[in-house]
Specification:
Layout: E1 5-6, H1 7-13, E2 17-19, E3 27-28, E4 31-32, E5 43-45, H2 58-63, E6 68-72, H3 73-79, E7 87-90, H4 93-106, E8 111-116, H5 121-132, E9 138-140, H6 150-157, E10 164-168, H7 177-185, E11 189-192, H8 200-203, H9 206-218, E12 225-229, H10 233-236, E13 245-250, E14 257-264, E15 270-276, E16 279-285, H11 293-305, H12 310-313, E17 327-330, E18 336-339, H13 346-359, E19 364-369, H14 378-392, E20 395-399, H15 403-416, E21 423-427, H16 432-442, E22 448-452, H17 460-466
Parallel strand pairs: 4-5, 5-6, 6-7, 8-10, 8-11, 9-10, 11-12, 12-13, 13-14, 18-22, 19-20, 19-22, 20-21
Antiparallel strand pairs: 1-3, 2-7, 14-15, 15-16, 17-18
C-alpha cells in the first residue's frame, strides 16, 4: 500500500479550499483519477483530458466509495451544491497534484535518478534500479508512468524507507515538460539515452527533440551528475549545459565508461570488456538484443556516480525483471515467438531484426507494424527497416498502412540484390484476424517469429492469439 495522502497536505501544498465536511486528520488511501477503479477512502482527482473530463465522473467515484473529490474552481462554482462528495477546490487539479508531490519530495531525503530519451527509457530505468538496488532500498516508477500526471503519482507511491528512486521522464510533446517533471522529482542524477526522430510529428525537428531532452540535464543541481550516451552526438552536446559533473558512456573509447569486444550469446545475453575508472573488467550480462550494451552501460555509470564498485553492481543484472521489453514465447505449431511489441522506432526494430538474425537457426518470420509519430522522417525510416528486413528474414508480414512502406522497400531490395527474403504479405489494421490466421498457417516447428510495432496497433493482442493457449 502507498503512504496515505493527508488532507493537510492537499490543503497546504495545493492551496485547496474545502467545501463540505471532512475531519482535519483525514487520510486518503490514494489519489485516483479513474472513477472505475476508485476504492473506499480514495481522493478522486478530476482530470480534464483530450477526450474526457473527469468532473463528469464525480458521481461515479462517489458510488465507489471515494472520500472526496479534487476539482476545479469553475466546476465547483456550478456543481458544488449538488455534489455527492466533499470537494477540495483548486484552480487546476493536475497542478495541485504536482504541488502535493513536489512538497512530499522536498521532505524526503532520497537520491533521485531521472531517465529520459527517445527510446529505451523504461528498460534503462529497470536496469538502473536493479543495479543500485543492490546497496540501497530502491523504488522505480511503475510501467511507463512518466508524464505530468504519472510522475507525481509515482513519487507519492514511494514508501518512507526508500533511499533511492529511479523515475522515467517523458517530455516528448512540448518544450518545458521535462523541466516541469524535474522541478517535481528534483533528480540529482540525470540519464539521457538517445535522441531519435520519435514524436517528430509533435516536435517538428530532431533538434527540437534534443532541446526537450536537454531540459533534464539543465535542471540538475551543481553537485548533480549527468550520465550521457556519448555515442549519440546530440546527447553528447548536452554536456555543455550540465551544471555539474558529466559521465559519458558508449562503445567508443572517447567515453568515460565504455565497452569493447562485445559478443552476443543470443538469448543468453552478451559479454564485453568494461573500461571503468582506468580498469578493465570482463563482464557478462543476461540482457538480450543489440541494444543491450546501451542498457548495461548507463546502469553501471549511475552506480559508479553513486560510489558503487562493479562487484556490487553486477548481481543487479541477474534480476529477472529487467528484460522488460522482449519476451520469448511458444508460438503456433511448435514455433518460437519473440514478443517485442511494446513500441517501435527504426533503431529498436533494427535491433530486434539483429537479434532475430543472431538466434534463429531456421526459418525467420517478421511481423512488423507501423512506426508512428515519425513526421517527415516516416517514409525514410520505414524504408530503412524494409531494406534490413529483406536481408534478415525469410518471410515478412506487415501490419498497417505505414508498414506497407516496409514491405514495398523489402520487395525492391529483393529485386535489386541477393537477399534472404522469399515471401512478403501485407495486412491492413482492420485485418488483424486475417493476419493471425495467416501466421498460424505459415508457422512451423523450428521457425522463429518476431513481432514488433507501435503501441497504438495493440500488437500484443496478436501475440496473445498466436500463443498455443490463445488458439481456438
Amino acid at each position: 500500500m502507498p503512504p496515505p495522502i493527508m488532507l493537510s497536505e492537499v490543503m497546504v501544498a495545493a492551496g485547496a479550499r474545502l467545501l463540505g465536511e471532512l475531519a482535519h486528520d483525514t487520510a486518503f488511501r490514494w489519489i485516483e483519477r479513474d472513477s472505475r477503479v476508485v476504492q473506499p477512502g480514495d481522493l478522486f482527482i478530476a482530470v480534464r483530458g483530450e477526450q474526457f473530463d473527469g468532473h463528469d465522473f464525480v458521481s461515479g467515484a462517489a458510488s465507489k466509495g471515494a472520500a472526496a473529490a479534487l476539482v476545479s474552481v469553475d466546476w465547483a462554482a456550478e456543481n458544488a451544491a449538488n455534489s455527492p462528495l466533499p470537494l477540495l477546490v483548486v484552480p487546476d487539479p493536475v497542478l495541485a497534484l504536482q504541488e502535493i508531490a513536489r512538497s512530499r519530495r522536498k521532505q524526503r531525503d532520497v537520491t533521485v535518478v531521472g531517465i529520459t530519451g527517445s527510446i529505451g527509457k523504461t528498460s534503462t530505468k529497470e536496469v538502473v534500479a536493479a543495479v543500485i538496488g543492490q546497496t540501497q532500498t530502491t523504488y522505480r516508477s511503475p510501467g511507463n508512468l512518466n508524464s505530468e500526471i504519472g510522475l507525481p503519482l509515482s513519487l507519492l507511491e514511494m514508501q518512507p524507507d526508500v533511499e533511492a528512486a529511479v523515475f522515467e521522464m517523458g517530455g516528448a510533446y512540448a518544450f518545458g515538460e521535462l523541466a516541469l517533471l524535474a522541478s517535481i522529482a528534483l533528480p540529482q542524477v540525470g540519464v539521457v539515452t538517445n535522441v531519435h526522430p520519435v514524436h517528430l510529428e509533435r516536435m517538428g525537428t530532431i533538434d527540437n527533440i534534443a532541446r526537450t531532452k536537454a531540459e533534464l540535464v539543465e535542471s540538475l543541481p551543481a553537485d548533480g551528475v549527468a550520465v550521457l550516451n556519448g555515442d549519440d552526438p546530440r546527447v553528447l552536446a548536452m554536456a555543455e549545459v550540465a551544471p555539474g559533473e558529466v559521465i559519458t558512456y558508449g562503445l567508443s573509447p572517447t567515453n568515460d565508461i565504455w565497452a569493447s569486444d562485445v559478443e552476443t550469446e543470443g538469448l543468453r545475453g552478451l559479454t564485453f570488456k568494461l573500461h571503468l575508472a582506468g580498469e578493465t573488467h570482463h563482464v557478462r550480462v543476461p540482457l538480450v538484443g543489440g541494444h543491450a550494451p546501451y542498457l548495461a552501460l548507463p546502469a553501471i555509470a549511475v552506480g559508479h556516480a553513486l560510489g558503487m564498485h562493479i562487484s556490487e553492481m553486477l548481481p543487479g543484472f541477474d534480476d529477472p525483471t529487467i528484460q522488460v521489453r522482449l519476451l520469448v514465447l511458444d508460438g503456433p505449431n511448435g514455433s518460437m515467438m519473440i514478443d517485442d511489441t511494446y513500441n517501435a522506432s527504426a533503431p529498436s526494430v533494427l535491433s530486434a531484426l539483429g537479434l532475430l538474425d543472431e538466434i534463429a537457426p531456421g526459418r525467420r518470420i517478421a511481423v512488423l507494424g507501423d512506426m508512428r509519430e515519425l513526421g517527415e522522417e516516416s517514409e525514410t525510416q520505414h524504408q530503412i527497416v524494409g531494406r534490413r528486413a529483406a536481408e534478415v528474414v525469410d518471410e515478412l508480414i506487415t501490419f498497417g498502412p505505414l508498414a506497407q512502406l516496409i514491405a514495398d522497400e523489402a520487395v525492391l531490395a529483393q529485386h535489386e540484390t541477393e537477399t534472404r527474403l522469399e515471401r512478403v504479405r501485407s495486412f491492413a489494421v482492420d485485418e488483424r484476424d486475417a493476419l493471425i490466421a495467416y501466421v498460424r498457417q505459415e508457422s512451423a516447428e523450428g521457425d522463429v517469429v518476431l513481432l514488433k510495432g507501435s503501441r497504438g496497433l495493440e500488437m500484443e493482442r496478436i501475440v496473445a492469439a498466436l500463443q498455443p493457449s490463445g488458439e481456438d
